[in-house]
Design brief:
about 220 residues, alpha/beta, Rossmann fold, 7-stranded parallel sheet, about 35% helix, globular
């Protein structure tokens, strides 16, 4: 299949590219940074998703929106929500489309983290439902993944501090963070294995949202 992955230069996006390549797909990556992926079936496009002058890529079957930022400013909404909507509207609504997967965040469901970031991801999860209703015409699915803490360079300041990392991990039931490859596996499942679930937001957070102290 022909796959477009945004935010493909690192972290979850890079892991998703590698997963789809391992499964024999033709993958286009889009990021503002260069990529170190070397595969004959991979094409890297340096492009800011906020720029509506999108490069021509015909016949996209799977779209994975993984690009995102956390700046504690309104830039989060501009990138994580507005740009993702515009890019998806541009590429997804055509006869070849089979699935769209949006990489949202646990914050979309819990409201935690920074206000602009949480709002941007909450909006993205709502947009996923709207997208699912309109993509049904093409017999295509649209779902979002809502990861909790993931081991990526984005969280380097926590990963370098063993005490801080453990404090965050202890907020979850399983006392750990997810690997980007695990999120990539979920993205592949939603895009290529799943055929009947659409408009849903899957929470992958090691049970953090369920962790609580019961007082009687």
């Amino acid at each position: 299949m022909k796959v477009l992955v945004t935010g493909s230069a690192g972290g979850i996006g890079k892991a998703i590219c590698r997963k789809f390549l391992e499964e024999g797909n033709i993958v286009y990556g889009m990021d503002i940074l260069p990529s170190d992926i070397t595969d004959n079936n991979y094409t890297h496009i340096i492009h800011d998703i906020k720029n509506p002058d999108y490069p021509a890529i015909e016949g996209i079957e799977v779209l994975i929106n993984s690009a995102g930022v956390s700046t504690e400013t309104a830039e989060d909404i501009a990138v994580n929500l507005t740009a993702v909507i515009e890019l998806t509207e541009h590429y997804a609504f055509q006869k070849s489309i089979k699935s769209v997967v949006n990489i949202s965040s646990a914050s979309a469901l819990t409201g935690s983290e920074f206000p602009h970031y949480a709002a941007s991801k909450g909006g993205l999860s709502t947009y996923t439902r709207n997208l699912a209703m309109r993509l049904a015409e093409y017999k295509a699915t649209a779902n979002s993944l809502c990861p909790g803490a993931v081991i990526t360079d984005f969280n380097e300041h926590i990963l370098k501090d063993e005490t801080l990392y453990q404090a965050v991990a202890d907020e979850s039931l399983l006392k750990k963070w997810a690997e980007p490859e695990e999120i990539a596996d979920w993205a592949y499942f939603l895009a290529c294995v799943n055929r009947s679930m659409t408009g849903e937001n899957l929470l992958i957070d090691n049970g953090e949202a369920l962790n609580f102290n019961f007082i009687w």
